[in-house]
Amino acid sequence: MFDNSSSAKLFHLHEHFRHPKHYRKESLNHQNGYKGIPAMKKKLLICDDDQDIVDMLTLTLKDQRFEVLGITRGAQLLPTIESFNPDAVLLDIWMPDFPGDVAVQTLRQTSRYAKLPVIIMSASRDGQEAALRAGATGFVAKPFSIDDILNLLRISLGQ
Fold first, then answer.
1. According to a count of CB atoms within 10 Å of the terminal CB, is the N or C end of the chain lower?
2. CA torsion 158→145→85→115, rounded to 10°?
3. Separation between Cα atoms, residue 133 and residue 155, nearest integer Å
4. How does pLDDT run across 57-101, given as a tens digit for each residue?
5. β-sheet bridge partners, residue 144
6. E-strand spans in the chain?
7. Rounded distance, CA 44 to CA 14, Å?
8. How far is CA 73 from the centre of its chain?
């Protein structure tokens, strides 16, 4: 049984969370028709051999309400996808131990991940052609704008 102070606290919390103004528009889950319930965070895997890029993208995308995991070795990509089960992948195309285009081709041949959105990042002039040939969902040239990445992610994730 609750004492009066506990009841007052519960009532205050209930009042606070039942009003939609406390939720950001982009956090509302309209897909299932339940307004006022925060949407699940989308899981994003970042794979780039440049730790600075992984760190910058991780910090920036966490601020954009993504659950982010960053790795720096291409050889970790497939096992990490299995364990983390991301909603999308940001992938450098020229990884020394497992190139991104080969990784995308491998994913596309696996029924479980054939439709997993994979956005390739590259500073190479041939990067876009190689990415699209491999079956990537999207491409962003380095140096990139975070807005370009966010737009590609939103389109790829259907948001």
1. N
2. 50
3. 20
4. 999 999 999 999 999 999 999 999 999 999 999 999 998 899 999
5. none
6. 42-47, 66-71, 88-92, 118-122, 138-141
7. 31
8. 18
Lowest mean pLDDT across 2-6, 76-80, 100-104, 142-146: 2-6
> Residue 115 corresponds to which tokens in the numbers above?
């439709």
Token pair for 128: 């876009």
Q: Counting Cβ atoms within 10 Å, is residue 104 exposed (0-12), middle (13-18) or buried (19+)?
A: buried
Compute the C-alpha angle 26/32/36, nearest 5°.
50
Q: What is the pLDDT of residue 12?
A: 36
Q: What is the pLDDT of residue 39?
A: 62
CA-derived radius of gyration, the chain: 19
How much is the pLDDT for 40? 72
Distance CA 75, CA 84 (A): 15
Percentage above 90 pLDDT, the chain: 66
| Token pair listed for 131 | 């990415």
